[in-house]
# Entry
Amino acid sequence: MIEKSGLKRLPLATSPFPGQSPGSFAANRSEDRNEDLYNSQRITVASFNIQTGIQSSSYRDYILKSWQHLLPTGKRRQNLDKIAVLLRQFDIVGLQEVDGGGSRTGFTVQTEYLAQRAAFPHWHHQINRRFANIALHSNGLLTRYKPQHIEKHKLPGLPGRGVLLVRYGEGENALHVCVIHLALSHRARMKQIAFICDLISHLPYAIVMGDLNFEPNTPEMKALVGNTQLSDPTTEHYTFPSWKPHKILDHILVTSNLAVNNFQVLDFPCSDHLPIAMEVSLPEQIRLTIS
# Structure
């Protein structure tokens, strides 16, 4: 089932991209945006671990703001509003560490809230771990294109990790988008990568995005790209921690027959991770639908 909701598109209040005009990631394609809605040859995608709307500016915040993982605060809603302004620039967004409606967020389903505030017509979330009614740890999807099918899979290892697999279109020309958040331990990640490889290795047109919790040139990355048609098209892009990034934990990977036109780490410290964004060109045979 695909949840749908939406409000009128909000005015862009600030520029999420340093040294550039507001909305500049999409500005290069804004003049032919209407054409793109029909031929669907270029799409913008983003991935963001939002830490349930908690803003961090130092390692001390993991202690000083630890109560926010259990209790509600008005600052969380303010931070989500800022995130929505950023995300409205994109066509497809994968979210990690989203709350699915626990008491700590005032029973707000955060993926739905961001969809409404950023005017995404389609949204979906996957609750992977419940802590009573306090915290519902989730992955999330925001999309302007209508998915034909969405699968939710639990990943091996300790409970609490999952993968959303989204299909746009039908048959051999379908585009698949995979949103994941992998475990902290190397052993668990290798098991999870093996599961994901079995899931997507046969797919010719795929985008995998998320907080993978590993860096390039690691056994995990070698296993993922070595057993699928994926490649990592980016160079050094430090995303963690957001206040002084020196680790590459967040990734967007694509299959080799998808062309990457642009990639950025966004200077947008509203979490402990920085968001990443990419523009992808699709082959003519792939058709995405707007509804």
Notes: The radius of gyration is 18 Å.
